[in-house]
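ok so I'm stuck.
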Amino acid sequence: MINPHIAFGEEGDILHFAHANGYPPRAYKPFLKHFASDYRVVASSLRPLWPDADPNEVADWSVLSADLLRVFEQLGTKILPGHNKIIGMGHSVGATSTLMTALQRPELFQALVLVEPVILLPWLSMLWKVVTKLGLQYRFHPLIKGALKRRYRFPSRAAMYKNYRSKPIFRRISDGGLREYVNALAREEPNGEVILAYPPAWEARIYATAGLCEPYIWSLTSNLKLPVLLIQGAETDTFGNRIAQRLLERLSFAELNIMPDIGHLAPLEAPERVFQVIKKYLRTVDV
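replied:
not stuck anymore, here's the structure
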């Protein structure tokens, strides 16, 4: 099933983008529109944005990877004669899910661009598995409590924007970029109010099930022979140096670009700058 929320471009190779937890595809419009002149961009919705999807369906992120695999298999049938395979690009959980899919089916891809992937070091992954088996993940994950308390309803999009503009997490996002995010996230109700299109219960579930597929990821990364660009925000609180360096050691054809003055929300905070880094890389590897 391909469920694109946003698509740009009619010429060039297919570039698929997978979004972060809590950030629908349309939130990335200021970033993805830059690729339209050279690529056919498709950004499909991860499971939390599917109608009637149940968070309890996700025991770990392999489900998200399986969903993406079906998307990539269908996109593969749309590759035109004379064009290369898919460029897989993702942010945060979208980057991790894209990597997991490429580890299963590398022949579908010509290159990967992983922006701030969420991957735990092996020892922390093992600890999180124990926490999960004990049923304590919702108690101990530092982001889950905030996700479940997130305000779900606002009088209007303007009120939602005003509320978000005051949040420190969005301080590096421009006014225009934040409005795109609000428009992507707000779902209008018949009474004129807006609710979150990305339910807090789903956001919490994605956090709770992070880190459970790491043994699979780390065991296979050294086998991947694709060009891989890793993008790290210098101010990140997620994709740390030890993880980035470990990936560089294990991915044979990987390159790391550390971008100053941006954090985990890199494509939303600096869409033009992140695009330029990716554009230069894809031209360097002749993609």
